[in-house]
Amino acid sequence: MLTRKPSAIKPSEITPESIYRQRRKFMQDVVSTGVAGALVASFPGLILAKDKDSTAKLAGENLSAIGKSPYSTGEPLTPFDDVTTYNNFYEFGTDKGDPVRYSGQFKPRPWSIAIEGECARPGVYDLEDFIAPHQLEDRIYRLRCVEAWSMVIPWVGIPLGDMLKRFEPTSRARYVAFTTVYRPDEMPGQKRSVLQWPYVEGLRMDEAMNPLSILSVGLYGKVLPNQNGAPIRLIVPWKYGYKSIKSIVKIVFTEKEPPTTWNISAPGEYGFYSNVNPEVNHPRWSQRKERRIGDFFKRETLMFNGYADQVASLYAGMDLHKHF
Ligand SMILES: Nc1nc2c(c(=O)[nH]1)N[C@H]1C(S)=C(S)[C@@H](COP(=O)(O)O)O[C@H]1N2
Ligand SMILES: [Mo]
């Protein structure tokens, strides 16, 4: 991946501690004032009883994240400005500043997602049928890029597994494949062949069903900015950032391991699993340490990005040097 050395991060990109704290306070307020709506435990049919206001609420700027998740980390949040201006989204360019600069023309609404493959309920569904505001919850997760920087981001989303179950995957569904939208007119980076378009990613079914995996529609209590993958993107916090595919238009249940963009691009460097693993170096650099955006010193990278208690069992008995 094209990288910028940590030393090249301008001091102006690093927000002072006091501002973090104000933002954290803001975030806590957003969370605590969120409607304490009862989470819907079961769905009579596939489609949610459509809340009349859901379109408006999901399209508005402010989302109220419902409740706090036990999976959230209590670490200081990376400032909103860093989360939304230092991005990887090659559809808008390869520089970290390109996504915010060149995503203004992108239209994340209306939006629909095609569900295909090994499931009883394939179809094309509106985003509003996918997610109703009362399902949203707050998930503060570490996101670690393979380029050895990390952030702590307050995502707003829903558990991926709950969503997938509604399509009734068959017993042949062993993997889930995701595809990003292909719109070269709105995504200038897609006019260049730096990667194969559209961007694709995949998870093994048990990884997708793990409660840590979410589909995110917002961050910092607001609708997802275009540069962060509007209107809906995956977040898999124990894997390197590139697994967390943005602007999803298709989800396919498959029997075979699906292709993934970075693996196609450089198979020796990026495997299917892509678990954060300090023991397995990227061929061109170590993965032992990372720099939290805003910090001066590097810190040790943790196995599975610190989520080993929740996910290590998924890989019991696998050689993680081979399945990197
Ligand atoms: N479609 C698409 N999804 C993508 C990428 C991309 O280039 N295209 N970049 C990935 C990488 S490398 C990272 S680190 C994360 C960054 O997410 P963020 O910009 O919201 O922090 O998005 C991932 N998802
Ligand atoms: Mo990344």
Would you mind describing this structure in some detail?
This protein is of the alpha+beta class and about 325 residues long. Helices cover about 20% and strands about 20% of the residues. The chain is built from nine helices and 13 strands. It binds ligand MTE and molybdenum atom (MO). The site of the ligand Nc1nc2c(c(=O)[nH]1)N[C@H]1C(S)=C(S)[C@@H](COP(=O)(O)O)O[C@H]1N2 has 17 residues, from loops.
Distance between the termini: 16 Å
Helix content: 10-25%
Q: Give helix and strand order, one letter per element, not per position.
A: HHEHHEEHEEHEEHEEEEHEEH
Return Rg in Å: 19 Å
Topology of this protein?
Layout: H1 17-33, H2 54-59, E1 66-68, H3 80-85, H4 98-102, E2 112-117, E3 123-126, H5 127-130, E4 137-144, E5 149-159, H6 160-165, E6 175-180, E7 200-204, H7 205-209, E8 214-219, E9 222-223, E10 233-235, E11 248-254, H8 261-265, E12 289-292, E13 299-300, H9 308-311
Parallel strand pairs: 1-4, 2-11, 5-12
Antiparallel strand pairs: 2-3, 4-5, 5-8, 6-7, 6-11, 8-9, 8-10, 12-13
The structure holds the ligand Nc1nc2c(c(=O)[nH]1)N[C@H]1C(S)=C(S)[C@@H](COP(=O)(O)O)O[C@H]1N2 and molybdenum atom.
